[in-house]
Design goal:
Length: 143
Amino acid sequence: MTPEETIDFPIRRVWSRIARIYNTEAAKYGGSMAIGQILLNIGPEGTPSTKLGPKMGMEARSLVRTLQTMEVEGLIKRIADKADKRVVRIHLTAKGKQMRDVSRDTVVRFNQAVQCRFTAAQLNNFRQVMNELDRILEQEQLF
């Protein structure tokens, strides 16, 4: 079986290219793709850090390190939940909100540039395959 005949090789190759595009764009603003992804996943009322990792498929160790960097750079602040003091919510600062807007614009521009090259049926098929692959990987032990 050649790499091109596998499921994972084209996904990995394309994701590497997407990551390179996002990291190149984020570097213009002193950020990274990981920082942009986190910024886009923090809700207006804050998000518990324990919910961010699973939501984005990010390892806890990488998430903690990135959150520490974001806090030092003034993009986020940690605030104890008013109802449950054991829960710490991640909130965006004004600077974090500005960076989130840049991240959102970058994602929108990328998606518009790609989506205009495919039919609605092709995009629907792609989403169905990716959703099913995600479901399989989430629910089944493959090996």
